[in-house]
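Write out this protein's structure.
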Amino acid sequence: MNKRADTSVSLHPLIAERWSPRAFDNNALIPGEDLAAIFEAARWAPSAFNAQPWKFVIGLRGDEKFTEISSVLSDFNKQWAPFASALVLVNALTLREDGKTNPTALYDTGLSVSLLTVEANHRGYDVHQMSGFDNAAAKSKFALDDGAEPVACLAIGKRTSPDSLSDEIKAREIAPRTRKALSEIVNITW
């Protein structure tokens, strides 16, 4: 199933065809080379003062980290995310090395996840970003550095038929994609 974006101008296919499916093939694996490339793309994201204020906890289906990340997901996300090949806890490092607050940590971490997503899509994987997880449980379950703030969980894997989902989740999966009009987010005209 493809859900190409209905854009106002032509975009690169990696952007126009990117979406966040919930139907993942629970038999698909991510080879180490692909996984390394996905996180190498994240590593090379721009960041203020080259601080690179992000840290990822990665779990592959079947390993302990995957189970631990699954356990902090919301009940809704627990219904579909564990079928992905990998689950990732994304953390923003909100303190600089000198102990001062890094005001761009969340922005920079988002850039990192964005490039990770593009590289994953380029390699034939889909990424679904989730805000539905227990932040406090994630903090207590994983040994995170001081100032590390869990900001999202990611499911990464190969897309499969939405028929594999419950009726409630399938309805969301097959619904048309929508976005605000460009004029609602940009205050100039061209």
